[in-house]
Amino acid sequence: MQKLFFITKRCDGCQACEVACLEKHSQSQSIFMTKMEQPSPQPRIKVKKSGSHYWATVCQHCTDSMCVRACMTGAMQYSLTGEVSHNTNKCVGCWMCIMVCPLGAITTLNEAKKASKCDLCKDEMTPPCAASCSRQALFYGTPEEYEMKVAGD
C-alpha cells in the first residue's frame, strides 16, 4: 500500500502542501476562489513548527486504526486496498475519531460539523501535496520505496 511519508529535515515550512491540498479539496479547484466558498475548504495536511524543525501532520492510514475502531457509524473504514477512508455521509460529527487519533491527523470540517482526513487523492497519480513540495519533504510510495529514498540522505 502506498502512503505519504514526511522527511523532516527536508521541510522548510513553506506550506505549499497545505495550499495544494486546500485547492484540491475546494469546490472551485482554484486557490483564488476558495475564500468565497461555503463551506470553506480545509487542508487535510497541516505543517507545524517544533523547535527549529517543521512537521507535517497527515493521516498515516494505520493498519490497526484507532479511528476505525472508535467510529460508531462506520464512517471510518478500510478501503479494499487497505487505506483508511472516511464517508462524510455516514459521519454524525461525534468526533470520536479525532479524540483517539494519536497523530492528530483528523480534523473538523467546521461548517459541516463532521470529521475530515487525508484521502490520498486517489484520483491522482501523486497526491497534490507531495507534487507541490519543491524540497521533496513529502514522499508518496510504499514503505520499501521510502526506505530506499532516504537511505542516501
TrEMBL record:
UniProt key word Electron transport: yes
Stored InterPro entries: 4Fe4S_Fe-S-bd (IPR017896), 4Fe4S_Fe_S_CS (IPR017900), ET_IronSulfur_Cluster-Binding (IPR050954)
Top-level taxon: Bacteria
Domain 4Fe-4S ferredoxin-type: start-end pairs: 82-111
Name of one Pfam family that matches: Fer4_11
GO molecular function: 4 iron, 4 sulfur cluster binding; metal ion binding
Keywords assigned by UniProt, alphabetized: 4Fe-4S, Electron transport, Iron, Iron-sulfur, Metal-binding, Repeat, Transport
Cited PANTHER family: ANAEROBIC DIMETHYL SULFOXIDE REDUCTASE CHAIN B-RELATED, PROTEIN NRFC
Name by which UniProt lists this protein: Carbon-monoxide dehydrogenase iron sulfur subunit
